[in-house]
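Support case: nicotinamide-adenine-dinucleotide complex. Customer-provided input:
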Amino acid sequence: ARTVLISGCSSGIGLELAVQLARDPGQRYQVVATMRDLGKKGTLEAAAGEALGQTLTVAQLDVCSDESVAQCLRCIQGGEVDVLVNNAGVGLVGPLEGLSLAAMQKVFDTNFFGAVRLVKAVLPGMKRRRQGHIVVVSSVMGLQGVVFNEVYAASKFAMEGFFESLAVQLLQFNIFISLVEPGPVATEFEGKLLEQVSTAEFPGTDADTLNYFRNLYLPASRELFHSVGQSPQDVAKVIVKVIGSARPPLRRQTNTRYTPLIALKAMDPSGSLYVQTSHRLLFRWPRLLNLGLRCLACSCFRTPVWPQ
Ligand code: NAD
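Agent response - structure generated as follows:
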């Protein structure tokens, strides 16, 4: 069986992925499901059922700590990881002026440097064995900038650049990289963000920006999560396929509703088509956001949207 190490398994996509892999009918995987706080392992253990202690073990891992990563790898038999899934991540949303540098750095420390730290730890072994697969839970926000998500998107762009660069070298070692890019997923992620936002004051932010954020962006974002959002189960299913593939893809989007919006970037290398379309969707026709995503590829919608 291949040893799969997953970060951030106490909830959401990580939890679902750990359970689905552990329940693989062919028992192809030995899953090391890790989380920062073992006090939260109850939900995972309950969901794992009979797989617990058989094809799934739970271990402590804080992706922001060198010591925790070293300790976790010492506990893995032979210290060999065949598949690493960088899933742990945090979000940050709000007007830039009202967010602290410390909060922004925490996002990069977790999302970007957390993944880099794990890769540095498992890569020597993978190179020695001339095999391995590194899966990264990125986001559509790793491909396109999204208003009021500047720092989160930047952390995912950083991952995209880092892993695309690394993929070139690693082909030489028969090691594959896969960036999985979900759109909105109904997990605790959104709840945590909304909680952050409801208590945050965003000091130093002008009234116009606060108004756009609270009265345009937040309702539109909620609407998107509920209309086009996927379940963590569906996203995990896509990742299971990617892991099981003989020739894993470098990139895999999970939500076809986002493909047209992302394609706008490729269609117009100047970038204005994407920026103008996003602007219009939010600031002119916020109620059409959901419909807009559905129809972006269709010409009736395209005519007024296309920048002249
Ligand atoms: P989630 O909040 O349920 O899961 C994130 C997990 O990461 C949590 O279990 C959390 O405890 C863990 N984590 C945070 N900091 C950590 C640290 N320092 N060490 C170890 N674990 C840590 O949300 P989710 O939606 O399942 O998120 C999983 C991944 O999916 C994240 O990388 C996120 O950026 C990405 N993603 C989420 C969405 C979405 O809409 N929910 C969309 C695209 C991508």
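The radius of gyration is 20 Å.

Case will auto-close in a few days if no follow-up is received.
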